[in-house]
Amino acid sequence: xxxxxxxxxxxxxxxxxVEKGERNASLGIIFKITEGLEILPSEIFxxxxxxxxxxxxxxxxxxxxLTEDFCxxxxxxxxxxxxxxxxxxxxxxxxxxxxxxxxxRNVINNLEYGRGKINVVLLKAMMNVMDMTIDxxxxxxxxx
Length: 144
What we know:
Layout: H1 2-8, H2 12-19, H3 27-37, H4 47-65, H5 68-73, H6 76-90, H7 94-101, H8 105-112, H9 120-129, H10 134-140
Helix pairs in contact: 1-3, 7-8
């Protein structure tokens, strides 16, 4: 540990705390460590980490778009139409769709009969079950 800290030109205590997970590494420390190891910074992040990082960024993007204020602006008829088209194409009942979406059947039933409200949980569940990106969902419900 001391040798690597010396190679990287990083204070031994700082390096030790990063390696033990007691401190987050700044980009500066990461660059110094990779320089000391004579590798590219991208080489210290494995494929699983990069995939997880990308997923978290997608979730943050979705969360920044799908807010309760956004849901109030959504055309409910377009969401209902999308749900009904999906159910018809998959030949599934409201109940089976609700199981796949992880929400109450009453939510779908009330929505299809014009009594329900659009909310973040519903839209995220639709994206997941219908295998849609945020861009596809926005396009389908006319919010692009």
